[in-house]
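Researcher: Before we compare anything, I want clean individual predictions. No alignment, no superposition, just each chain on its own. First chain goes here; please echo the sequence and then give the structure tokens.
Model: Echoing the first chain and its structure:
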Amino acid sequence: MKITFINEVSRLCEAVGADVMQVAKGMGMDPRIGPRFLQPGPGYGGSCFPKDTRALLDVARAEGVRLKVVEAAVEANEDQIVRALAKIDGALGGARGKVVALLGLAFKGDTDDVRESPAVKVARGLLAAGAAVRAYDPAAAENGRREAPGIQVAADPYEAARGADAVVVATEWSEFKSLDWARLRGVLKAPVAVDLRNLYAPSQVREAGFAYVSLGRA
């Protein structure tokens, strides 16, 4: 619920010109809330959260109990993928016929688990929209390719970006935090970056000459 809440707050931040990262920082300073899970992104995934929230709803429905908050969390999480794809489509000026360098396939960093991975869902959505997807993940590349057979797999971020129309950061791997933006710009067809994990300061990427799109920041 914290994940989906901050994702929805990020939409409001975009509408009013606020910075969701500052909002999350302020909220997290309250010890009753804390900072954990107040990180905007393309939604939760993995083997636990999606399965367990749906199972909880099934139990509640069987007993005739309405869990409106859990229902809303599940609905908002599913909608976050639609929102992520819309951001990518907008940054590309239409995804059809474009090549996207997708950085990350695991549902979170430091794992090869792609079960219910938002990154894989983004890859599938891009393929369905007529884009080509060249992906890199330090651990989950082969697992991701099994889940989204139409993608190509690259050996590193720069190979993934070579000739691509945009780079999309979909998993919060630590190594992605230290990308060489000048090198990326040199291999991309167009300097467009969509950061679905808010890993970077907007000024950092824009100063490197990129059109930069993130979540909940003007």
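Researcher: Okay. Second chain, same rules.
Model: Second chain and its structure:
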Amino acid sequence: MTVSELVSASGFDVQCAPCPEKEISGVYIGDLLSWVMGKASQGDLWLTIMSNVNVVAVASLADVSAIVLTEGVVLGSDVISVANSKGINVITTNLSTYEAALKISGIIQ
């Protein structure tokens, strides 16, 4: 499943999608950036509430398919610019992280 297919199926909002055809291979949930760097896998969706520019750097290092911001969190325009320039997809939802994970699980099985 691609990021664009997930967005269509989930109803999540797109903040930026420079690479919407990236394949999703799994999910990682976490807010501690050092853990995400060491434990997220290439192609994972990364669910977080973190919204600073460092999440884009970590997403790039881990080569995740997209950052999924939960709890209504959104990126500032300056961070969106960096995400676009680094090819990092960012989608958002008002759902809690738990609810978003359940919804994603039902879609990507």
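Researcher: What stands out in the second chain?
Model: The domain at 3-108 is CATH 3.40.1390.20 (Udp-n-acetylmuramoylalanyl-d-glutamate--2,6- Diaminopimelate Ligase; Chain: A, domain 1). Additionally, The chain has five helices and five strands.
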